[in-house]
Task: inverse folding
């Protein structure tokens, strides 16, 4: 199945980090970089990040599960721990999707998105230091007139029931309801 362009799949409110599950699972984090920047990404090196919309795929199987990991990404961790923390300091989280599962799905999702036309890998190996599936990265720059990842697409790519994937957009106080 190709990319699904349905924003209606996403709920139009922020789910508080406290309400996220403490169980393990995989997630997609959507980030918006308003301007191009050059960032030193740990030992990976120094890279140019164009302005645009990024998707980062990860998993959370440590203490606190998805709630701890996604909550940290949503708040913006004070301490750098993962590659995505370098980008997160300058980018705005615009949304996220997650599924509670014992399967690590970030490689399945990464490999599926990597072949979409116009999708680029800004930093080879970004977020994929421990990847055993030969993913080019777990961070992708989406084309401006690009794709919307939906619960439907994520569930289909990972052979899950659509009810098993939850998606949320971040709405700032300056946004108006339709």
Result:
């Amino acid at each position: 199945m190709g990319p699904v362009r349905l924003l209606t799949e996403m709920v139009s409110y922020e789910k508080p980090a406290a309400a996220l599950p403490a169980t393990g699972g995989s997630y997609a984090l959507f980030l918006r970089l308003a301007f191009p920047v050059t960032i030193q990404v740990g030992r990976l090196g120094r890279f140019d990040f164009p302005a645009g919309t990024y998707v980062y795929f990860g998993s959370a199987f440590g203490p606190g599960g998805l709630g701890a990991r996604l909550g940290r990404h949503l708040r913006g961790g004070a301490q750098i721990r993962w590659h995505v923390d370098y980008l997160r300091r300058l980018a705005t989280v615009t949304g996220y999707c997650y599924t509670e599962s014992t399967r690590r799905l970030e490689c399945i999702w990464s490999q599926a998105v990597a072949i979409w036309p116009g999708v680029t890998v800004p930093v080879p190996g970004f977020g994929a230091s421990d990847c055993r599936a030969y993913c080019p990265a777990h961070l992708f720059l989406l084309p401006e007139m690009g794709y919307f990842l939906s619960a439907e697409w994520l569930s289909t790519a990972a052979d899950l029931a659509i009810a098993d994937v939850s998606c949320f957009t971040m709405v700032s106080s300056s946004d108006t309801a339709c």
User: Anything to note?
Assistant: Strands lie at 25-33, 37-41, 45-49, 52-60, 92-100, 139-142, 166-169. The chain has one domain: 7-169.
